Amino acid sequence: MAERLLEVEDLFVEFSTRDGVARAVNGVSFTVDRGQTVAILGESGSGKSVTAQAIMGILDTPPARIAGGSIRLQGVELIGLPEDEYRQIRGRRIAMIFQDALSALNPVISVGEQISEMYRTHRGMDRKAAKHASIEVMERVRIPAAAERFGDYPHQFSGGMRQRIMIAMMIALKPEILIADEPTTALDVTVQAQIMDLLQMLKDETDAGLILITHDLGVVADVAQRILVMYAGRTMERGSVDEIYTHTANPYTAALLQSIPKIDQKLERLPAIKGLPPSLYAVPAGCAFNPRCPRVADRCRTGEPPELVEVAADHSSRCWFAEEVLAHGITL
Amino acid sequence: MASPSERVRVIEATHVVKHYPITQGIVFKKRIGSVQAVDDVTLTLDKGETLALVGESGCGKSTTARLLLGLEAPSSGTIVINGDDITQLSAKKMRAKRRDIQIILQDPYTSLNPRMTVSSIIGEPFDIHPEALPKGKTQKQAVADLMDQVGLNPEFVNRYPHQFSGGQRQRIGVARALALKPSIIIADEPVSALDVSVQSQVMNLMFDLRDEMGLSYVFISHDLAVVRQIADRISVMYLGKIVETGPQENIYGAPAHPYTRALMSAVPIPDPETQRARTRIELEGDVPSPANPPSGCRFRTRCWKAQDVCATQEPPLAVIRDNQLVACHFPEQPEDGWEHGRAVGGEVLPHAPEAGTTQQDAT
Amino acid sequence: MSDNTPQAYDLLVQDADSERLESPESGAKPRTLKGDAWYDLRHNGIFWISAFLLVFVAAMVLFPGLMANADRTSSLSGGCDLSNSLLPPSSEHWFGTDQLGCDVYSLAIYGARPSVSVGVIAAVVTTIIGAVIGLVAGFYGGAVDSLLSRIVDVFFGLPLIVVGIAALSTISLPGIWGVTLILCVLGWVSAARMVRGQTLEAKAQDYTTAARALGASNTRIMARHILPNAVGPSIVLAVIALGGFIAAEATFSFLGLGIRPPQFSWGTMISESQPVFFQAPWTLLFPAAFLSVTVLAFILLGDAVSEALDPKLRR
What we know:
The complex is a heterotrimer.
Chain A: E1 6-17, E2 20-32, E3 37-41, H1 48-56, E4 64-73, E5 76-77, H2 83-89, E6 94-97, H3 101-104, H4 111-123, H5 127-140, H6 146-149, H7 159-171, E7 177-181, H8 189-206, E8 209-214, H9 217-223, E9 226-231, E10 234-240, H10 241-246, H11 251-259, H12 298-301, E11 309-312, E12 315-317, H13 322-328
Parallel strand pairs in A: 3-8, 3-9, 6-7, 7-8
Antiparallel strand pairs in A: 1-2, 1-4, 4-5, 9-10, 10-12, 11-12
Chain B: E1 9-24, E2 30-46, E3 50-54, H1 61-68, E4 76-81, E5 84-85, H2 91-97, E6 101-104, H3 118-128, H4 139-149, H5 166-178, E7 184-188, H6 196-213, E8 216-221, H7 224-230, E9 233-238, E10 241-247, H8 248-253, H9 258-266, H10 272-277, H11 308-312, E11 318-321, E12 324-326, E13 338-339, E14 342-343, H12 353-357
Parallel strand pairs in B: 3-8, 3-9, 6-7, 7-8
Antiparallel strand pairs in B: 1-2, 1-4, 4-5, 9-10, 10-12, 11-12, 13-14
Chain C: H1 4-18, H2 33-42, H3 45-62, H4 64-67, H5 104-140, H6 142-157, H7 160-170, H8 175-186, H9 189-203, H10 206-214, H11 218-254, H12 266-273, H13 282-313
């Protein structure tokens, strides 16, 4: 493939606040192909949401600042694009849904109107045509009795339904890239399953690329083909989901996989990762994970952090002992 | 776990009902309906045991927690804590009773008063119940001991909550709950709001405290993977009713209620191969409103097995096998394609769009 | 892995040491909510402008003698010479003189005290009354809240100035006390509504639930948990209301209903300048300017404090 659908290369995003300069995204690279689901997995402070916002171009520019790197949509550079051009891309070619649908939707405008807005603004449709198209897309996301509910307001819907409305707005213009930032975190688990299936189905229908931002290892295993594990703004591991879950080459990923409670296992005591994710204003020297790492050695604590190295085909890990972890795993 | 003859019952809640009236009018209020948050719930807890209350939003588990703590009075029913029916206690006696049962809350960001230092927060129980202060120790020492016990550095005693991370704040909440040396702790989603890498730490803390202090837990959660690690018995709630209850092995090994199965099969397993091999049961639609629950069996509008009798007769909570009770006219049998925590191969369960959409109540 | 158990806690205790609790540049000093608010205030230009102005206002109120001569304000003490009536500003009389020959500059300085005192007393008293009513209404809810809220609504509907005029015309309380009383009686409504809202919010917070679960009495919950968290916006409101009360006093005095001669305030000065405005505009302009600037300073301060406190309340 000559050019990928989306290419993020060496992205750096900094936040300048009174507490100092935080490198929220510290040299992150990945690609997304058509029809592919790429998961960005991380905890608080990992930089996963900031990465998504940088792609959408919706970072609050002070205090945030894209300090370097490149984001290319089918070869076209997005960083530095003037706002009016970015507006053509946002919604039309790249679209995003967020964790909390209630605060993302305007409470005083009916949901139908909000969806119609997409059609009227970007496609220049008139009221009637836009309404027709909106009802159609509401049906696509399986909102029952879509025509009757066109005029309802966001608060009249349940959490799962509101998320569907957000998804309807997201896919209305058939964008090439879908970004879902923690789309199911605030939802019940049975609703979560519905929403994830819906996202997959819609992505397949249009052969779009889906970037899924989450902290849930289970959801990633369910829907993603590729995964990017982030910690304190850096990529810790990157590659195919199948490969990484079964043969992880990074102590952080391995530790996460071991420490999370699993429904098909009961343990007397859970393996736990000690310590806490670091503050981005005081990232440890050397490897960011070193205070907590079960495999830590002296070289991890000082000097430059390890580079991201390829340990197998399409499988990279940022660790001095990546090969060892790949071969023998780690014990928590 | 204690043998049957040694078991001491610490909680006995019988036929507890909590309805919230829905009123209309500003000055003179007229009752036009009620939200049936908790509808005839019976549960028990023995000393040293952990009972999990599992369910999704609107199922009534948090309301049940508030009722057990005496924060609200039930509309009817009795709640006996360590031998006393708290629905009958005077305010003064209730205050003393509070020392027996404490709570750990979900959100580490709102469960601590932002304007109080850690020492005030953990010390407050002693301010309210001075008699609870351990003999020979000052409040300062008692607070430091508690901080040690939960894994916090006692040096940070004069700091404010916003200076700590989520996991640390949760530990502060735990320390506060332990101060009065309660015998029962109600944990309302204690790890749901924490980072993944911190959840296991706090779970381990809860295990240790249970062993050290002989605590009994009511563990409320929607996360079945977490629940499995700590619970001895599980009660599954749906729309204010308990639909299934039983020992952990039975519930995970052979869940009998369709909702329990659906709930479990919805929990993703972090192993791509296993996940792909699973059969997913997908429920259509959303949970009906607790102000207007379906007649008969409340789950029937989303159940793929629903028949006419489910609409006319509410299934009673009945024993299906030793110690496991289920409220269903057509409970699932162990042989129906199940393997510890997940539905597998065999019978592929349908999406049941008919059951979901046509009988759907207004959301 | 049972071996890890005791170690895990030790390491956590150590990790709690290394965990960021201070910001890197400031070294050991931890950030407090008050500290953050002060930092924001310090860096807000508006704060400094209003602070600067208010320093002068405070000086006028507390130490008028340092800035002006009391004798020059009253004919009784012989400082006002009728023959000097309505002189324009000069080096002798910086702001000119009024009809009685009194020095407008001295009058303006000494006029600060009654105006600002009324404002301060009214602001403090109305905030206290409003806070108590708002707290009780919000905390107890139910019938108590319904009753109190209806009372609040009634008072809210009363236009302060109009009712004040009516009241001051009928009661015969001496000048400055009459005005203060009326302002206190009518002006507590905004504070009450605000505190009630904040109380409802604080009541719903988890930490209040936790306190109840500990067996805390209502008094303790109100005093330790609700009030401290409800008080922030009330302070802002009080500062802004202060400005408003000063303006209200000026209005009443202007209409002859508040402070009466031989006492004087900016309001009375403005009132008395009416007949001679065209001949001697300085008799109006200076007291009016002092009044406006003082009210503005309080409002700006309120704004600045509001901005400084607001994001911290979100934490």
